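Model: You mentioned two targets. I'll fold them one after the other.
Researcher: Yes, keep them separate.
Model: Target one:
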Amino acid sequence: MEKVCVVGLGYIGLPTSAMFAKNGIDVLGVDVDEYVVDKLNNGMIHIVENGLGELVKEVVNKGKLRASTKPDNADCFILAVPTPIREDASANIDYVKAATESILPYLKQGDVIIVESTIPPRTVDDVVAPILKAYGWNLDNDIFLAHCPERVLPGQILKELVENTRIVGGYNELSAKKAADVYRLFVEGEIVETTAISAEMSKLMENTFRDVNIALANELAKISEKLGVDALEVINLANKHPRVNLHQPGPGVGGHCLAVDPYFIIEKAEQESVLISDSRRINNSMPQFVVDNVKKVVSKKGKVTVLGLSYKGNVDDVRESPAVEIVELLLESGFDVAVHDPHVKQRNVIYPLADFDYSIKDSECILVLTDHNEFKQLNETLVTETMSNPLIIDTKNCVNVTDETIGYYNFGNLYKLNELVARNMVSALN
């Protein structure tokens, strides 16, 4: 294996490209975004990931990694393009189709094609394979097709690319073996060979499992708010059982995995996926639940400070982020919204981002939607001096508040917002 071509230089494709290059492989990274290509060829990256900037600079300077808007000849082609969902919640695999078609002129006998994009079950067999066959390739012995889904944690991608178990699903047994050998160039974790459809389904179920369990925690949060129960304490107590591991509630589920992958299963077996569908509805309802609680304490057209737009702490990824939907709902409700996120780049969002000082000026409520490290210890003096009635709603349970003059609410005491509203109503009548 001398050369690898990676199509798609996003949160998975770029780290994967850099990892192959680090291990001595000549890598061509392909992306339709010229901004991404230009940055990479100058040894820079367009995403935030621990250690990635230094690694990319190193391998680009060594000539092991370069970028282009078009593929070229290689021994292995890895497709790592997005698979978003349409408005009807069906999978949009147009990028996967386009990526497959883009490499056709460059294929040769013995090449390996690996789809890393998360895809609905049977996409390799029913979509990718027919494109290759129509071009004249025999998938039994001419070229080798497989699916190897990514399974890494943002912030630890470089480490987990090496250490995590990889599931390699081949179009046939020989393809699985050929693709597994590609990953053995740098993967130290276990490499499991299986069928393409089993690999597709396993990836989807990994994230669906988490989505379903988060839905249970979010439903508990709603019930607790109604009944006056500390949901966070309940979770902590329940998790003392040796076989119970409840997840934490939050403002919704984001990212390209948990918020999307369950729909790929629902699409293929709608009548059978009742629990999965219900979980999606529960998690999708959380942004409105958060906004409804904000409405209890912020005056009409009042200012709300939103801390965090990314779906996860200490990353810049806003894909499917519930925070983005919450901002939209707040704006639709007539609130003045100031958004602060030290990790997100302005080019990735349509909302103007502001610094923390400006964001809390004349604000009636600080709404924490992402657990960035920067938010765990806020400048409480600035908060109390800037806000007349300082109040924080922390949907991530991450802010450490020591000043008792600051009203602090999370999923542990969210029900107390109702008590606050009642007291304010009594005060207004008197």
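Model: Target two:
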Amino acid sequence: MTAAIRLHSRLDLLLAEAQHALETTLGNPPAQRPYPASATPDVALDKTERRHAAGLMRINHVGEVCAQALYSGQAAVARDAQTREHLREAAQEETDHLAWCARRLRELDSRPSLFNPLWYGGSYAIGVAAGLRGDGWNLGFVVETERQVEAHLEEHLESLPPADLRSRAILRVMKEDEARHADHAEHAGARVLPFPIPGVMRLASRAMKTVAYRL
């Protein structure tokens, strides 16, 4: 009986993870916080500006898909309940980011990346691998991920068309959230990732951004 209950619990966990993956990559999960651009006028952009803004917001949407997958994978194997809770709280705010980016893409008459299922699967595998190393490494991946995301959000704030105030309003709130996630993970005992992991993460991120900007 005990074995049957344990098997059922693992199956439930697997089904919940699959549902989360489908909702993240193909669905439209709702945000819990208000849309940051609601009070910002939607100024008309020309065709080139609109395409560029959409490309940047698609990259940011992919980043949130990857964050959801990374944190879900890490939480699935985290040993410490406090670490799991930290990851789930961060993932909830990333869900807000995901919804905001998706809404802005619709406003720009564009769409998310066609490769979202691929981005999710790869990031989930990385999250599980990080989590299996222990909670200190788990949190170390959170810190490095958030610091890199924070840096590329700053680049996007500078690169957005000057008139695109709505996208800029969204990215400012996202950048503040990412910095807070990294700070919390550091205070919770994150370990510094050794060479060459941060560099490999940057290379993978650069490749993802190149593809997601167009597809």
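Researcher: Noted. Anything on target two?
Model: The domain at 43-212 is CATH 1.20.1260.10 (Ferritin).
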